[in-house]
């Protein structure tokens, strides 16, 4: 006599993964823990491989024991890392601190390319001075900083990027982050690729020629410049994305939704995926904003 074996529905692994990712996003958005904690949890992925292998070898006969042991092992490794047995300490460690100082040196415009890894990013403006950029970057173990300034005619080209040199290793109880300020004196084309962590862009007083943001994992808050004529392209990643358009500037917002939810708040006329303020066509100061959704909530306010 044969017996039909119970089969798991196809795609159940993907469904479970989506549920887990969704739960983590919700918990992070409600402040129950931050994206750095998620990155630390993600660094425990080899435990998952061990549990799957053990489950396959035992043909599922000791599944409860195997996965229970994996859970305990993961918790112990997480605690082991958190108390600093690897040298971290409760307050976090910094492998290296980098001072960022680059003069304008007569440049009439600038291109700024930023690529972050894991950590926070705060970007604002310089109140005065002759520098293109000032700030500090904190890197972790196995991470290097690319810091290059070049000239293309009268345009200064600044490239700042962190690179992880140790393969799949994620940060362990380390302080990593950027605190950067850019000049108000010249027009800037700003390009940002963010990694994992919270990003805050306070761009109200900058002169932007263009803005391109490729968000990674974490919360991203962008406040756009108050004046000028420029285009901004923002592509959401995993997590909450909030874009604030100052009241004094006209706007056209084009939205391409992803798996998350998009909200556009303000006085707009609406046609399909395009939202436009009544004075957009004639305004001296205006922004053409294009937002592409990812996995999470996107909010645009004006």
Given as residue ranges, the uncertain stretches (5+ residues, pLDDT < 50) are: 1-13, 82-93, 167-171
Q: Quote the beta fraction.
A: 35-45%
Report the average pLDDT across residues: 79
Give the helix proportion (percent range). Answer: 10-25%
What's the number of structural domains? Answer: 2
SSE pattern, N- to C-terminal: HHHHEEEEEEEEEEEEEEEEEEE
Question: Which characteristics define this entry?
Answer:
302 residues; alpha/beta; 2 domains; ten-stranded mixed beta sheet; nine-stranded mixed beta sheet; 4 helices; 19 strands; 20% helix; flat; disordered N terminus
Structural features, described:
With 302 residues, this protein is of the alpha/beta class. It has 2 domains: 12-82, no CATH class; 96-301. It has 4 helices and 19 strands. The protein has a 10-stranded mixed beta sheet with strand order 5-6-2-8-10-12-18-14-17-16, with no helix packed on it. Strands 1-4-7-3-9-11-13-19-15 form a 9-stranded mixed beta sheet, with no helix packed on it.
Layout of secondary structure:
Layout (H helix, E strand, L loop, with lengths): L11 H18 L5 H8 L2 H13 L5 H20 L13 E8 L5 E7 L4 E6 L5 E9 L3 E10 L2 E10 L12 E6 L5 E6 L5 E4 L5 E7 L5 E4 L5 E7 L5 E4 L5 E7 L4 E5 L3 E3 L2 E3 L9 E7 L4 E5 L1
Parallel strand pairs: 2-6, 2-8, 3-7, 3-9, 8-10, 9-11, 10-12, 11-13, 12-18, 13-19, 14-18, 15-19
Antiparallel strand pairs: 1-4, 4-7, 5-6, 14-17, 16-17
Helix pairs in contact: 3-4
């Amino acid at each position: 006599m044969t017996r039909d074996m119970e089969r798991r529905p196809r795609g159940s692994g993907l469904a479970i993964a989506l549920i887990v990712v969704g739960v983590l996003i919700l918990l992070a958005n409600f402040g129950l823990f931050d994206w750095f904690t998620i990155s630390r949890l993600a660094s425990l992925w080899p435990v998952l491989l061990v549990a799957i292998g053990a489950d396959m070898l035992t043909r599922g006969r000791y599944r409860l024991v195997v996965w229970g042991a994996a859970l305990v092992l993961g918790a112990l490794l997480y605690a082991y890392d958190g108390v600093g047995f690897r040298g971290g300490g409760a307050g976090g460690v910094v492998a290296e601190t980098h001072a960022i100082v680059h003069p304008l040196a007569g440049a009439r415009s600038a291109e700024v390319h930023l690529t972050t890894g894991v950590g926070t990013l705060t970007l604002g403006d310089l109140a005065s001075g002759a520098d293109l950029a000032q700030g500090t970057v904190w890197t972790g173990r196995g991470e290097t900083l690319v810091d290059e300034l070049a000239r293309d005619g009268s345009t200064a080209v600044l490239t700042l990027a962190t690179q992880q040199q140790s393969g799949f290793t994620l940060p362990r109880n380390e302080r990593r982050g950027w605190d950067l300020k850019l000049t108000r004196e010249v027009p800037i084309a700003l390009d940002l690729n963010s990694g994992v962590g919270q990003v805050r862009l306070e761009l109200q007083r900058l002169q932007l020629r263009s803005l391109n943001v490729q968000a990674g994992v974490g919360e991203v808050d962008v406040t756009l410049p108050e004046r000028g004529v420029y285009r901004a392209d923002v592509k959401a990643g995993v997590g909450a994305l909030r874009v604030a358009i100052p009241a004094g500037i006209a706007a056209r917002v084009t939205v391409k939704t992803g798996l998350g939810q998009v909200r556009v708040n303000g006085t707009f006329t609406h046609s399909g995926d395009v939202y436009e303020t009544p004075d957009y066509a004639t305004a001296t100061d205006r922004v053409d904003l294009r937002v592409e959704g990812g996995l999470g909530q996107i909010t645009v306010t004006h």
